Structures are given as structure tokens and as C-alpha cells.
């Protein structure tokens, strides 16, 4: 159960939503969920006591009092869908019950979803299966996929969007069984599909005293401000590093979780123009949204300022020395376009905030306003100055003296968090998601390719291959990556979708793995006959949610059966539905956005087998890219991945097996000329086995060749089974230089088996 301190923190946070128009009764309702987190309650405790004779036959709800935390619960739990409670403020009444649409008509309009339920479903689609737990066994997220045919979601959909758009918390209930519910606490909707049926819940801003009790400012932190000695500058930098770690832990369950962060370098190298490096008298820490390439957009900054007396400042900051000047220009344009809204946001801030306009080239021009004395003319002046003076800076912050900062004690991180949250609406107004997409879209493909390859771990694929993939996607083509098992197809696909896909869509990608059971239903969707509902599947789900799609092991499915209709759909930009599907889903077709893309992966062996069987529709609608390792980077990449693994293998262990490692890479190079690709993952598996076995053998090199032979038999030999005779013969020749007898013998046996099989088939032909 939350402590009284934690309850007060959450109460302060929740009631801060009142200024955004959320009624107090809703916030009291949500506070009830927080206070009762982890409690096991029965239905009566959750929904109130049934009033005898007050329920009306035919209504899917009951009259109950008292109902914590509200007066009336719209009870649709018989559906066993995710939406459990549609809480209404006290005083609102049911006017009538609409029999046709099976819904009540309420007095008033102020409603939105506040409580959602998951349950113990047994099927793969069942509720309860969607809950993901963290390492402590606490709920970490819930992935909802309702797929309901009822109009209930059309009613609640707008309220779900409202919670999502305004970062509003909602209550979470876990139905463990009949009359048995667990209060899971508060959650936040972090992702929502276009059809409102699919979304993700994350725990909302947990207040854990242990996570927030490690860092507190000390008198020494302020005594050293202003000092330009290396020792003092490095000390301040180290302290801000400790603070950053605490803040990132604290932000784990908030929308700041995905923000990048950076400590300012303690030295002044950037501005010395080749002179001897000096050290700054101040230190800073920044957080910002939109990836590392968007550092210049708008920063949340924490600064130990070298003024007299020294101060701690916390707030938002627009840099004057922006490397990406386009970002700065767009933000200033946004300030001008949204100046009325921005002014209202600023005026709602507490009197503790100050607004500053600063000039590095002439500090006498610096201006500062207290919020209470800030006017519309002042905002106009700031916008004009930022537009006309390239290196001018804007800062909106709270300032703390030494005694004020030290007196915060272990509440430092909590205080910083509150300031960030208070300024969040200002940030959104300045750089909203649409602007970030525009900014990100201008990052060059070359920069993106470098980022994709860099890792960690580093991907040992030639850069020009990555650029080709990006160009295909940019030009509107879907892509299939072809290569040997373990060559890095899946890792490369995921990295492209995580980085480039996120830039283009602003969304995470949708992962999937094809199987032999796949049909049109698994790809596009269809009617669930048991529930009489319409279910979206991988392509329709990705299209409707605005996400890009990964289909791993593409060839495992029956190409024409599973993807036949999809080929026409991606060309026509829509998926037509049958009359029955239209009736149940309530829509005529599923629109595929122009910006939708998918990446598939396929093993080269399977592609060769399927070459004559592959649908013409597949071949013409996808770009097929052969993935090969970059031989100049492969060895180093393999080494780094093995050493950074969890087997306690170091550089010395690698060097002890260097002879076998070099021989192996020479062998791989010969095999690739056949041509037959050996994947990076296979190479890592083989060499990791050799090095670990050698290490376990006290590093004695006498058995390393034996270990290599064993690894080749176990990892590589199965990949050559049923390949063509020439490939096996040439690989057998190449293997003799290794001196690996068992592996070579295995290849010889494969060759002889193929010869026998060929003789049998020849006899049959005769």
C-alpha cells in the first residue's frame, strides 16, 4: 500500500489536472484506485451494494449504493471486454435506456473512461494474457486488443482518446475470478489505434521513496560553483551524473521515460578556438524529446549557475548555439503561431517561475520577467528577438538558492519532476508531434544508416546495403531481406524499423512471425466465429494504427494463401470487406495509408526452394535485398559481441584462440565464394563455444581445434543438409584446411548420400 507521503504526492499530481478541465469527482475516483492498489476486493466493495428492487429488468447495469468511488457504474462487464467501469459524476441521471443500441442515455455530456478491467481469459486472445510483468512481479504494461462488434467502443473511444491525448491516468482492475478483483492501481494509455480498439497501458508515475531517496544536494555542490579548476568541474559533473541516474529511474513510468539526456562537458573546449582547454564555472544537465538528433529543439535543463550567489535552475531552455538551425527556426515559428495559447500557459505557472531572454555576445541586453509581471507585449518582444538575433536564448525556470536546494533533501528529484510536468504543455505547444516528425524527416539517409549500423551491438552489414533498403522504403516500396540463417536479417530489420520507421511514423513498429498455419485471416483479419466479432490482424492492425510492420520468416507461410489478397490491397491502398464482415465490423473497408511499409525476412535456402513457387504478386510488390556481412567489420563486430556477452570472456581469452579464429574466417571467406553465406550469428555461436571451451580448459591451445570441430558439427553442418551437391563438395574442400576431421567427414557423408540419391533418381528416369 502507498505510504501517506506517497498518497500526498499522487493527490497533488492528480488534482493538478483540474486546471485542464478534469472534474474533481473523476480525480477522487482515480485517487481511490491509487490508495487501494494491490487490494483484493469483491464486487460489492468495488461496485457498491445492490439496492433491492431498484434495478430495472433488461438493463445491463444495476442500481448500487454506496459505490466507491462514485455513485453509478455503467456495468458492461458481462461482455468480458477490457472496459469495466464508465464512471459518471454524482448528480447525473439516466434519462432512458436505448433498447435498439443497448446503451443508456445520460443527462449531461461530461463522461470519459476512467476504469478498465482485464481478466483471466484462457485463449490467446483472452484478457489476462495481455498483462506483462516486470522483474519484481509488478504489472509493467497491458496490451489491449478488444475487437468488439458492439457500438460500446464507438461511445467510449472518444474518451479513451481524451485520456491518451491529455496524458490522463485511468484506474486498472484485474478480475481474478467470480466476485474477486485485484486493484492494480493507475495506468496511462501510451498507444492507441485509429479504430480505438487497440492500446497499451503503462503504470502511471509510481512514487517509490526508495527510488527517490538517493540524491540530495549538499553545501559543497554550491561552494564549488564558479570554480574553473579541473578537479572541481569534474566533481560537479559527476554529481549531475548521479542526479541524472536518479531522474531517469524516477521517470520510468512517465512520458519522460523515452527522453534522451546529456550532461554538459566540464571543459570549455568548444569556445576556446584552439587555445588551452579551460573549465567552466557552471554545470548543466539536459533532457529532450525526439532522439539524439533533436537536441536543439527544446531542452529541460538543470543548471548549477555561476552567478553571485550561486543558484540551481530547473526549467525549459531554447539554445542560442543550435547546430540544427532549422529546428530553432521552426520552434520560433511555432511560438509565433501559438502565442495566445502559449501566453495562457505561461500565466498559469506559479509565481516561482521567471522568464529570461539572454544574449551571450552582450549580457547587458539580458532581460528577465517574473511571471506575475509578464505581459503579451513581452512575449511579442521575445519572439521578435529570437527571430532576429540568431544566438539569443530563451529560458523559463524556477531558481533555488543554496539553502533552498539543500533543504529539499530527498525531494530533489520529485521537485524537478513536478517542474518538468508543469512545463510539459509549453513544450507540446512549441514542438508537438507533427513538428518533430518534420524535423526528423530532414535527417539524411546517410545519418540514419550510420545510426542503424552503430548499435549496440554494431551490425556488420555494408552501409550501401542499408542505404539501398532505406531508399526503397523512402520511394514507397516494401522490402524483403534475404540471407543465410544468422546473417543479421532480423536484427537489421528491427533496427531500421526502430529508428527510420519511428522517424517516419512517430510510432513503434508492429512485430510478427509468419507460420505455416497463416491464412488470409492471420494477415488481414476476419470474423471470429466463436465470438461473432471482427478481428484485425497483422497488416490491418498495422495499417489502422499507423505503424510499420515486420514479418519475420516470411516464407514459412503459404505465400499465395496467406498473402494473395494482401498483394492487391497494398497496391489499391485498401482492403475490401465482405458483406458479413461489413455488417459485424461496421466498416466497408480498411484503408492502407500511403506511408505504410512492411519489411519481411527470408532465408536464402528457402528462397531458392520457393523461387519457382513464389507468387508473381510477391515478386513484383517487394524489393528483394541480399544481406551479406561487411567482411571489413565482421571480425571486430563478432569479437565485441562475444566479449560483451554474459560468459565472462575477455580479450585475453580471444587471443588464446586466435589461430583457430583466423583459420575459421579464412574458411568462411572460401565458402562465401561458392557462393554460400555463413551468418554472423552462426559465427558468434561457433567462436563463443570454442573460446568458452578453451577457457574452461585453462586456456590450453592443444584442444582448440577439437572444440572448433565440435562447434562446426553442431552449428554449421545442419545448415548444409539437403543443399546442392556442388556447394557441399566445394565446402568439403575448404574444410580440409581447418583440419576438422568430424566436420569434413560429415560433409563427405552428405556428398555420398546425394550421389546415391542421384543414382536412384537416374534409375527411375530410365
Report on this model:
This protein has 766 residues and is of the alpha+beta class. It folds into four domains: 4-203, no CATH class; 219-438, Protein of unknown function DUF1054 (BirA Bifunctional Protein, domain 2), CATH 3.30.930.20; 443-626, Rossmann fold (3-Layer(aba) Sandwich); 631-765, no CATH class. Helix content is 43%, strand content 19%. The protein has 29 helices and 27 strands. The strands form six sheets. Strands 1, 2, 3, 6, 7, 8, 9, 10 and 11 form a nine-stranded mixed beta sheet that branches. Strands 12-13-14-15-18-16-17 form a seven-stranded antiparallel beta sheet. α7 runs antiparallel to α9 (376-388) and α23 crosses α26. The protein is globular, with a radius of gyration of 31 Å.
Give the key terms.
Rossmann fold, seven-stranded antiparallel β-sheet, 766 residues, globular, 4 domains, alpha+beta, BirA Bifunctional Protein, domain 2, nine-stranded mixed β-sheet
Low-confidence stretches: 51-94, 106-113, 121-127, 149-157, 433-439
Kindly give the count of domains: 4
Task: Describe the largest sheet.
Answer: 9 strands, mixed
The beta-strand count equals 27
Structural class: alpha+beta
Query: What helical percentage do the residues reach?
Result: 40-55%
Mean pLDDT figure? 76
CATH superfamily of the largest domain: Protein of unknown function DUF1054
User: In CATH terms, what is the fold-level topology of the largest domain?
Assistant: BirA Bifunctional Protein, domain 2
Radius of gyration: 31 Å
**N-C termini distance:** 82 Å
- Share of β-strand residues: 15-25%
Determine and state the CATH class of the largest domain.
Answer: Alpha Beta
Continuous helix count? 29
From the spread of the alpha carbons, the general shape counts as: globular
Architecture of the largest domain, according to CATH? 2-Layer Sandwich
